C-alpha cells in the first residue's frame, strides 16, 4: 500500500524548490522504507537543482540522512523495522570487478531502489544520489541502510551520509594520514573541516587549514587545525612550506576542486608526498602541469570518491568515536531547520554562513 508524504522537489533547472506530495510505494524485494529523522543540506543538492548533475527532473532532493526503518521488502536480511540507520549512496553489489578484488569501496555497480517514488500525478521522481531524503519517508535499497548505535543524534549521524564522510575518509582512507604527519587542507567548508577532524583523529602533528574566509578558518581551528592560512593575501604554497620546515606537507588535500587549488596542493606537498582531490570539479575545468614535475616530485596523486568509505565498516566505527567524545560531529551542525526552509538554507550555504544546515523532521 502506497503512502503519501511531504517532500522537497526541484521541478526545473534553477527554479526554487517546492514542497510537494510524494507517493512512496511499499518496498519491493531488497528494498526498505525509512522514516527520515534528519537530513543535511549539501552542495550536491544545490547542484541537482541547478542542473549540474543531469537533467532528469524532477528531483527529490536530500541525501545526508539518518532515520528509522519502517518496513522492508522480501529477501532483506540483517535489517528490520525499528533499526536506526544512516543512509548511504554506496550500497555495494558484491559482484563487480572492484568488489571481487576485495575493494568494495570502489564498487562500480551500487544498488538503488528499483521502484520509483512519484509526484501525486504519477510523475516519476529522480531521488538525489538514489536517496531523496528531504521527505518524511523515502524508499531505498536495503543496502543503502547502515545500522548504527541509536544513541547518536540523528542530525549529527546523518552527515556521515555524504560530506563529513567524504572529508574524514579523504584523510583517513585515501590520504592515509598517520601519526606525526603534516597535513594541509585547501578549502574549509563542511568537507574541508571534516578533513581537519580526520587528520586530528589519525594523529597528525601539524594540520594547516587554508581558506579565503576567516570564519571558515576559525571553524577549522575549532576542529583541530594547528595553523591557518588566509589565501587572500598570502602565497599559499610558500606559507605551507614555511610551516613545514621548508619542505611541504606530507599530505595535501584539495577540498575545493579547482585547477588553481589543485596546483597549490601539488606544489605544497613534500617530495614523495600525497595529493588528494576530494573537491568536485565541473566538467569544463582543465589542469596543466609540467610532466617533469609530476615525475620529479614522486609520491601519489589520488582522487577520493566518498572518502573511499565502506559504509558497513566506517559508519558504525565513526559513530562509536562520536559517542565516546572523540569525534565532534555536533560541531558540523550549524542550525536545524524545517523542510520548508531548504531554499533559504541554500542561500545561507552559498554565502558561507553555515557548515551544515540540517533538516530535522
TrEMBL record:
<feature type="domain" description="Enoyl reductase (ER)">
    <location>
        <begin position="14"/>
        <end position="359"/>
    </location>
</feature>
<dbReference type="InterPro" id="IPR011032">
    <property type="entry name" value="GroES-like_sf"/>
</dbReference>
<dbReference type="InterPro" id="IPR013154">
    <property type="entry name" value="ADH-like_N"/>
</dbReference>
<comment type="similarity">
    <text>Belongs to the zinc-containing alcohol dehydrogenase family.</text>
</comment>
<protein>
    <submittedName>
        <fullName>S-(Hydroxymethyl)mycothiol dehydrogenase</fullName>
        <ecNumber>1.1.1.306</ecNumber>
    </submittedName>
</protein>
<dbReference type="Pfam" id="PF08240">
    <property type="entry name" value="ADH_N"/>
</dbReference>
<dbReference type="InterPro" id="IPR002328">
    <property type="entry name" value="ADH_Zn_CS"/>
</dbReference>
<dbReference type="InterPro" id="IPR036291">
    <property type="entry name" value="NAD(P)-bd_dom_sf"/>
</dbReference>
<dbReference type="GO" id="GO:0050607">
    <property type="term" value="F:mycothiol-dependent formaldehyde dehydrogenase activity"/>
</dbReference>
<keyword id="KW-0560">Oxidoreductase</keyword>
<dbReference type="InterPro" id="IPR017816">
    <property type="entry name" value="MycoS_dep_FDH"/>
</dbReference>
<keyword id="KW-0479">Metal-binding</keyword>
<dbReference type="InterPro" id="IPR020843">
    <property type="entry name" value="ER"/>
</dbReference>
<keyword id="KW-0862">Zinc</keyword>
<dbReference type="Pfam" id="PF00107">
    <property type="entry name" value="ADH_zinc_N"/>
</dbReference>
<dbReference type="InterPro" id="IPR013149">
    <property type="entry name" value="ADH-like_C"/>
</dbReference>
Amino acid at each position: 500500500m502506497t503512502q503519501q508524504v511531504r517532500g522537497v522537489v526541484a521541478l526545473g533547472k534553477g527554479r526554487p524548490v517546492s514542497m510537494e506530495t510524494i507517493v512512496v510505494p511499499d518496498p519491493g524485494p531488497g528494498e526498505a522504507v525509512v522514516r527520515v529523522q534528519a537530513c543535511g543540506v549539501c552542495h550536491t543538492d544545490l547542484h541537482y537543482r541547478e542542473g549540474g548533475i543531469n537533467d532528469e527532473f524532477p528531483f527529490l532532493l536530500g541525501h545526508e540522512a539518518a532515520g528509522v526503518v519502517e518496513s522492508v521488502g522480501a529477501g532483506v536480511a540483517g535489517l528490520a523495522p525499528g533499526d536506526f540507520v544512516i543512509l548511504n549512496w554506496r550500497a555495494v553489489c558484491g559482484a563487480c570487478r572492484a568488489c571481487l578484488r576485495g575493494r568494495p569501496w570502489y564498487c562500480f555497480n551500487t544498488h538503488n531502489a528499483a521502484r520509483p517514488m512519484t509526484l501525486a500525478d504519477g510523475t516519476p521522481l529522480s531521488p538525489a544520489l538514489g536517496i531523496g531524503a528531504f521527505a518524511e519517508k523515502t524508499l531505498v535499497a536495503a543496502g543503502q541502510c547502515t545500522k548504527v548505535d541509536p544513541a547518536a543524534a540523528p542530525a549529527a549521524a546523518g552527515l556521515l551520509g555524504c560530506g563529513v564522510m567524504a572529508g574524514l575518509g579523504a584523510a583517513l582512507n585515501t590520504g592515509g594520514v598517520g601519526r606525526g604527519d603534516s597535513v594541509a587542507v585547501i578549502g574549509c567548508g563542511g568537507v574541508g573541516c571534516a578533513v581537519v577532524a580526520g587528520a586530528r583523529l589519525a594523529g597528525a602533528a601539524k594540520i594547516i587549514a587554508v581558506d579565503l574566509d576567516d570564519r571558515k578558518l576559525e571553524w577549522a581551528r575549532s576542529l583541530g587545525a594547528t595553523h591557518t592560512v588566509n589565501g587572500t593575501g598570502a602565497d599559499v604554497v610558500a606559507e605551507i612550506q614555511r610551516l613545514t620546515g621548508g619542505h611541504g606537507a606530507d599530505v595535501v588535500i584539495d577540498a575545493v576542486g579547482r585547477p588553481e587549488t589543485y596546483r597549490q596542493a601539488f606544489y605544497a606537498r613534500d617530495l614523495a608526498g600525497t595529493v588528494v582531490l576530494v573537491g568536485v570539479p565541473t566538467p569544463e575545468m582543465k589542469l596543466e602541469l609540467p610532466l617533469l614535475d609530476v615525475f620529479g616530485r614522486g609520491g601519489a596523486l589520488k582522487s577520493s570518491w566518498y572518502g573511499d568509505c565502506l559504509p558497513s565498516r566506517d559508519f558504525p566505527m565513526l559513530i562509536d568515536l562520536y559517542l565516546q567524545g572523540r569525534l565532534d560531529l555536533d560541531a558540523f551542525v550549524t542550525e536545524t531547520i524545517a523542510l520548508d526552509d531548504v531554499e533559504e538554507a541554500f542561500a545561507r550555504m552559498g554565502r558561507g554562513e553555515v557548515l551544515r544546515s540540517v533538516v530535522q523532521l
